[in-house]
C-alpha cells in the first residue's frame, strides 16, 4: 500500500524493539486514510455530545426515546447480522489489558472470549499501546509465550478464547501519532493497527476481526463506526459484513437508543453489553446538578438490582433478543484471595450475580480473573444446557419507560463517611497505579480499572455540589473532603510509599473538588504524563 495523502504523518514515540513491525509505512498510511475520512465526523459527534450534555445539565432538555426514530423501534422485521465464527457461545468472557502475561493467561483461561482491552484496563503509555498490538499480533499467529519469575514457560493451548479487541473511546487522542502536527484519534489508532495487521490472519484461522465499542452516547456514533468498518473492509479487500462489534451500553443516553444503535450497525453487530460504573458515571455527568432525586448513595449500594439499573439491564436483554443479538452481562471484579472465608463470601456473591443475569436472559457475562471463569461458566451451563446462548428468550414481559430509566431516586440508600473515604482511597490508589503504567490494578481484592476512578471521584463531586448529608447529618463540603483527603493520602502513602501520589492527589482535586466535572483523562497531570512517559 503506497502513501496516497499529502498529509505528513509522524511517529513521536520512541521506536522500541519490534515496534517497526506494527508501525509500518503501510499501516500508518491506513491510519491516515481513516483519519482523512473520519476525523471531521469524529469532531462533529464530540461536539454533539457536549451540546446535548449542556442542555441536559441546564434543564433545557431531558432524556427520552427519540420520536424521530420510532419507526425503527416499532418495526419487527429487521434484525442484526448476529455472531461471527467463534462468537456463537459467549457464556463467559474474561477482560484485561494486552500485556504479554495477560494475553497468554486470558487465552488459556477457559473463557469463551477474551476482551483484549486498550481502553479502561490499559494505562495508555506509548509502550503499552504498541506493545499490546505486538502481543495480539503474536498471539493470533500462535507465536507467543510468557515466562514466570520462576522460569516456567507458558504458551497458548489448543482451544484459546476468541479475541475481541476494545479500542479507546472517541474522546481520546494518541499524542504519539500525528498528522500535520495534530494527534490522531486513539480509536482510529487502536482499531486501525489491529484491523490492518490481523483481519486476514483471523479469517484464515476461522475467526474474524471483532471489536467492543466503548462509551457510545448515540446511534449517530454507531453510524460512524459502521462507516469506518465499511471503508476498512473495502480498503483491505475484506468481505463486507466481516467485522463484528459488541457495543457497551455504558452511558444513560445510549440506553435510550439501543434499538437505533443496533440498527445502524446491523450488518456488523453481534450484541450489546451492560456496564455498571461507567453507566452510573454517565448519570452523574448528565444529571449530577439536578438535585436530591439524582444524588446516588455510596458506590457499594448502587448494585445492578436497584430499580433504575434493573430497568436498563432488562431493556437491554429484551432489545437484543428481539433483534437476534447477544446480551452480555456485567463485570465480576473479585480477585480470589488466600483467605478461605473471604473467598467463600465473595464467590457466593459472584454466583448470585451471575445467576440473576442468566435467569434474566443474558447470554454470557464478564469476569476479571481466571479464577472466576469456572463460577461464571457453571452458572450459565446450568441455564443454557446444550444451547450456545438464549437469544430465543425474548422477554416480551419487559416494559420499560423513560421514567423507569431516569428513576435514580429508586436506588435509595445513604451516603456515609466510610463511603466518601472509600471513594477517595480507591481513586488515589488507582490513579497512582495508572500513572505507573498499570491500567488494571488489584485493590482490596477487586480488579479495578479507569471506570473505578471516574465513578469514585465524580460521586464525591456530586455530593459536594448538592451539599449531601452524611448519616449523622454532616454536610459533604469541599473542606470536609479535603480533610478526608489529607488523612486518606497519609494512609495510602504509608502503604505504597511516595510513589506518584502527589500527581494522584492533584488529579483528584482537579476532577472532584472543582466547579466542573472533567474526566481525569483530561487533567494537566495526565497531559504531562503522556508527554513525559512514554
Would you kindly provide a written description of the structure presented here, covering whatever features stand out?
This protein is α/β, with parallel strands linked by helices. 49% of the residues are buried. The mean pLDDT is 95. A hairpin with a 5-residue loop joins strand 4 and strand 5. 48% of the residues lie in helices and 13% in strands.
List the helices and strands and how they pair.
Elements: E1 9-11, H1 19-22, H2 25-58, H3 70-74, E2 92-97, H4 100-107, E3 113-117, H5 126-140, E4 145-147, E5 153-155, E6 162-166, E7 173-179, E8 182-185, H6 186-204, E9 210-213, H7 219-236, E10 244-249, H8 252-255, H9 258-264, E11 269-274, H10 277-287, H11 307-322, E12 326-332, H12 340-360, E13 364-367, H13 373-384, H14 402-405, H15 417-435, E14 441-443, E15 446-448, H16 450-466, H17 478-496, H18 501-512, H19 524-532
Parallel strand pairs: 2-3, 2-13, 3-6, 9-10, 10-11, 11-12, 12-13
Antiparallel strand pairs: 1-7, 4-5, 7-8, 14-15
Helix pairs in contact: 2-6, 2-7, 5-6, 7-9, 10-16, 12-13, 15-16, 15-17, 15-18
